[in-house]
Design a protein that fits this description.
- It contains five helices and nine strands; from the N terminus they run αααααβββββββββ.
- The protein is α+β, with helices and mostly antiparallel strands and about 220 residues long.
- It has one domain (about 1-220): Jelly Rolls.
- A six-stranded antiparallel beta sheet has the order 1-2-3-9-4-7.
- A hairpin with a 2-residue loop joins β5 and β6 (about 165-170).
- Mean pLDDT is about 75; it is low at about 1-10, about 100-105 and about 205-220.
């Protein structure tokens, strides 16, 4: 059974060709793996696994890659560039990303759907996310540039920062400045589902007052 699940996930990765797009963008920008590792904070071996389509990058990793490569996160799910000011994604066109079969220690695992797959250079990225049932000691805290909006569709989520705990029930919503270290977990017996809209600010970095080529964090 596990072998079949891993096979399905690997087929999904190859279909999205996320690794191919990461490699193409890296080479287009004339970055080495070390350059991209420095920009994203991801290890060279992990980046190599992504480029070879051996793993499915979770949302937090895709955000780091998108920022390091100066593209919107949904670039990785686009079939072709569409510059129309209106983009419609039909139900059958939404993209499902599974949990990675071999989740790295310290990384969140979940299932998510990319709900907009056509619009290039968008400023918001909408997702349907399924949060797994977790114990509190399994929670992984993340922070990144940008802001996010979460609306709970099914189940109950627990939201935590280092000094705050909130319970979000079906119909509740939360808006977060994403540079606050935070984590979610499902506290139901079944996975919870939520609509998430993410915005990554490329003009102003959360680490400093500058952006783009002037951002000091990119030079670390």
């Amino acid at each position: 059974m596990t072998q079949n699940v891993d096979m399905d996930i690997n087929l999904a990765v190859r279909a999205f060709k996320i690794g191919n797009k990461v490699r193409e963008l890296r080479q287009k920008n004339r970055y080495t793996l070390q350059d991209l590792a420095s920009k994203t904070g991801l290890s060279k071996p992990f980046l190599s696994q992504i480029e070879n389509n051996h793993v499915v990058p979770p949302v937090a990793t895709l955000l780091k890659l998108a920022r390091g490569l100066d593209v919107g996160m949904n670039y990785f799910f686009e079939d072709e560039i569409d510059n129309d000011k209106i983009a419609i994604t039909r139900q059958a066109e939404s993209r499902r990303i599974e949990k990675r079969p071999h989740q790295e220690k310290g990384e969140v695992g979940y299932t998510y759907f990319s709900l907009e797959t056509k619009k290039a250079h968008k400023k918001m990225d909408p997702y349907l996310i399924e949060f797994p049932v977790q114990e509190s000691d399994e929670m992984v805290f993340t922070s990144h540039d940008g802001e996010e909006f979460i609306y709970v569709l099914e189940g109950t989520l627990e939201f935590r920062t280092v000094d705050r705990i909130e319970v979000l029930n079906t119909g509740d919503a939360i808006y977060i400045e994403s540079d606050v270290s935070h984590s979610f977990r499902c506290i139901n017996k079944e996975p919870a589902k939520a609509l998430a809209v993410l915005w990554a600010n490329k003009a102003a970095c959360s680490f400093c007052s500058r952006g783009g080529s002037e951002c000091e964090q990119d030079k670390v």
